[in-house]
Amino acid sequence: PTALKRDIQSEKHRLINKTFKSRVRSAVREFETALTARDQSSLRTTLNEVYSLMDKGVKRGIYKPNKANRTKARMAAKVAAVA
Q1: In this structure, what are the phi and psi dihedrals at residue 15, rounded to the nearest 5 degrees?
Q2: CB of 53 within 8 A of CB of 28?
Q3: What does the mean pLDDT of the chain come to?
């Protein structure tokens, strides 16, 4: 019974993590769209959204800290190149 319960819990968490990663990818796409449009206000908003989601992902154990830092650094560099 314990193994079955663990399977059920793992499946629930897998779906939750899948949804969260999808939200992150959508936020990154919005950032890329704002980047190509060179819209400064939406660029800052979407950048903050991605930062927030990546930090939450690290806190929840979905992403490793280095992946989040690498992603955020690359986005910051793109913003600096545009500005």
Answers
A1: -70, -40
A2: no
A3: 95
